[in-house]
Structure formats: C-alpha cells, structure tokens
Design goal:
Order of helices and strands: EHEHE
Radius of gyration: 12 Å
Strand content: 15-25%
Strand order of the largest sheet: 1-2-3
Structural class: alpha/beta
Oligomer: single chain
Number of strands: 3
Mean pLDDT: 89
Amino acid sequence: MTTPSIAIMLLGNAQAASSRSALHFARAALAQGVRIECVFLYHDAVHIASTLQHAFQDERSCALEWQQLCEQQQINAIA
C-alpha cells in the first residue's frame, strides 16, 4: 500500500488566518501519516520563506513555524 501524499499552496502572508489554518492542516495530515510533497508559496506567501521577518515577543511567528516544519519534515518549500 502506498503512502498518501499531498501538496499545499499558500497565497496569504504569514499574518493571514489562512496561513495559520494551513499550518494546522499540514500538522494534522502529517500526524495521520500523509506525506507532504511540497509547499508552494505564491503571491504574499513568498514572504514566509524570508528569514528577515520578525514577530513581536508575545506573538508566535507563523513564518518561522512553517520554516521549521518544512525543515524538520524535509518538505520542499517553493517560492
């Protein structure tokens, strides 16, 4: 039996609710054994790939969380 796999496309920037929702979806998919082939960052989402973004100390950085997830899970992020 083959492992199911998906690709995810993000359009919104790191502050967009859709980016946070997609992050939760990605984590849930991984927890269910789904392989994420790639995360495609388009339009404002390309800023998620930037290491120059900074969040306030009392905020979680969605961009940093995406970067960490892709690195830990060896997911290709294409901007």
